[in-house]
Fold these 2 entries.
Entry 1:
Amino acid sequence: MSTKFDKGASIAVIGAGIVGVASAFDLARRGYEVTVFDPAPPGQGGPSWRNAGQIGASDLQPLSTPGIALTGLRMMLQKDSPLRIPGLEKLRLLPWFWRFMATSRGDNYRHACAAMTTLASQAFEDMSQMLSAAGCAGKMRRSGAGFIYDRAQSFAASQPAWAMKAEAGFPSSPMNREVIAARLPDMDARFSHGMLSENWGDVSDPLEIVRDLAGALQKCGGTFRHSKVTRLTPLANGIFVETEAGREIFDGTVVAAGVASRQFAKAFGENLPLAAERGYNLTFPDPGFRLELPLVMPDRGIAITQLGEGLRIGGWAEYAANPNRPENRSCYEAMSRISSEIFPGLNQSGAISWMGNRPSLPDSIPVISRSLNSNRVFYNCGHGHYGLSNSATSARILGSLIAGEEQPPANRAFTLRRFN
Ligand SMILES: Cc1cc2nc3c(=O)[nH]c(=O)nc-3n(C[C@H](O)[C@H](O)[C@H](O)COP(=O)(O)OP(=O)(O)OC[C@H]3O[C@@H](n4cnc5c(N)ncnc54)[C@H](O)[C@@H]3O)c2cc1C
């Protein structure tokens, strides 16, 4: 079979999270006949629903940075630890963490930084184009973000990373106590060290974005099937997509099923080491003030955003091999206490609690790739902390792969081959 799909070819997309819907929209605009499968309504089957809604486009380092072993241990010992690996999950995830640790060293680390830079440098332009095509460009702001540190010491330790970003063309400026008080008057007065990163922004609401894209996709002729895909079977002239409702034949398929993507890869004999990196947050519908700027608090591992649904505060990383592991309710109590520490006047009534499974790969780089074992299967998954931010860029890269366009060498970083 040829390695490119002609216009009019039928493509099944598995997963209607932000990544699947963005990919489907890109493919429909290229002239493919697209069908999206998901048992959940668009955006509501995974973390695309109530994530922090930030467009983070200046993080140029993988989570596993040099010295991560010590940093991770220190984090796990601190009160309200932003990093948790419960009980037996430590054993189950040993191979994953082995690979994670390897990312922090030598060429692995340099390659991961280069891939993160490739995505970050295109995120805003691709997002603007995708949202304009969907008629909702006004729902994204390139406001910049305040990175607010708890300690002068961690602020000082972060400076080499900020210098590296500035050198790569991602500018920032320091925020002292006065600047923080002026721009973030509802924050506790204890915060006196921050950086304003320009390549950052937010959307009005992450679920609204998925819904708008889904609507725009339908206008381009795309369709949705509310069913779970149980099996993919490649044939000589197509691929069978099986669901509980029956099976249909397509020319090609895109696996964008978040953490569940790894099962599909396994069935094709491919290693796609996805872990569920669970994040917890609270949304306060009526906080009593309006936050002007999206915030990241690196010492606490949380992000704070003013969204249509309210003020959202949360984050953290709780690793699990099993994405269906029950949520840890004590995280919400801790998050509520932290929220009032940061904003002493916060009205917490009516808070909505939520947990989502980030689909995370050990090198923090998504897989945007053709399958190694079937020409008809493609993957777009493993976006970890930046699935919303990189949805448009990864959709464009995937669309260009499917259309058989020549790829810039930098896109090789996203291949599935690196795990196989
Ligand atoms: C607390 C938190 C805050 C975050 N904040 C941000 C942020 O500010 N900015 C950012 O860019 N990212 C953020 N993220 C990360 C972001 O949410 C994810 O990277 C992104 O949502 C992943 O999207 P996805 O479409 O790949 O996966 P998902 O949203 O998980 O979608 C996958 C879909 O596949 C479906 N599916 C699974 N199996 C099957 C099957 N067999 N058949 C059919 N369908 C199937 C599921 O139902 C689901 O709808 C955050 C995540 C968390 C948890």
Note: Residues 106-133 form the longest helix (28 residues).
Entry 2:
Amino acid sequence: MSEEYVIITCRHCQTQNRLLKDKAIKNIKTTICGKCRENIFIGDDEPYYEISSGAYEHPLDRSALNALKKVPGTGTVLKMIIKETVERYHRILFMQNYIKVTPMHMPFIHNMATHATRILDIEEVPQVFIYQNPYPNAFTAGVDKPYIGISTSLIDLLSEEELLGVIAHELGHIQCGHVLYKTAARIIYQVMEVVGNLIGVGRLAFFAIVQALYYWDRCSELSADRAEVIVTKSFTTSIYTTMKLASGSQKIMKMLDMDEFLKQGEEARKMKEENFFNSLFVTMQSQSTTHPFPVWRAGHLKEWVYDGNYLDILQGKYLKRSEEGDPDKDFREGDFKKSEDEPGLIDSFKKLLGLD
Ligand SMILES: [Zn+2]
Ligand SMILES: [Zn+2]
């Protein structure tokens, strides 16, 4: 356990509290001020008023998304095409084939979605659908009116708090504006399978675009994971969710150990750094995945929770929507360089988007 301390000024009486960082992070909901005895962090039922996704977005996700938005037509034409084709098709399919959650129908899930929406100060509660599937998964779609799909096996696998985290994660995608581009990415991945047999320069260019999209896709997951812990205020819950998704087993659930899992992430990082081939294999193994591998995901979240602005946000110190600057101004070249992963892909992304 880390012996690092943090000084946190009480939101109520301005007293400076010296707290063990690890203990505070693991007990957000019960950490109180030594003087006035009030909760030091934002209460469980208290919304983050006016919170901007910029308060918690992963830097690479933000930069890549800003770059994508600069491509002419992506904001309007792409939205219109997807809304009238894929989205229309799926809405009709879901309404016929999935179970629609309402205040009367599976109210506990409806209440979770309502709660998380309010906490993240998002205007409208998205419609939630439950679908029967042995693969534990959740997704968000809908460029105009977003909706969330949750598989039955995910509901069976997770505790209520973990499920709330998953819903908050999906809301994070909505708040960060990922949904349009994620939907477009899914379509492109499918097209790639069809045109995968192309030869020559065309194939190479297409491959580079697809890899860049996959890379952004994975980075966007890191932002959504942050939204998850902002709502649940429980880093432990998120790591258990990640472990459960990695294992998928009810039987071993009680035997899972968070510290051992995080240690495995450290081992994986060391293996990657050991030599060039390990690093190359890590890149190859992850390049066509839409989600980061579980140990990396847990490691990234831990890094942000312990060394990023997580504790600031939980004290109410975060970027508000009214304080958002011009996204072009926010675009920082350095953000690309912050990530040590897959520099080749980042470079190709920059080239493709004309940022070089
Ligand atoms: Zn106080
Ligand atoms: Zn996600």
Note: Residues 42-352 form one domain.
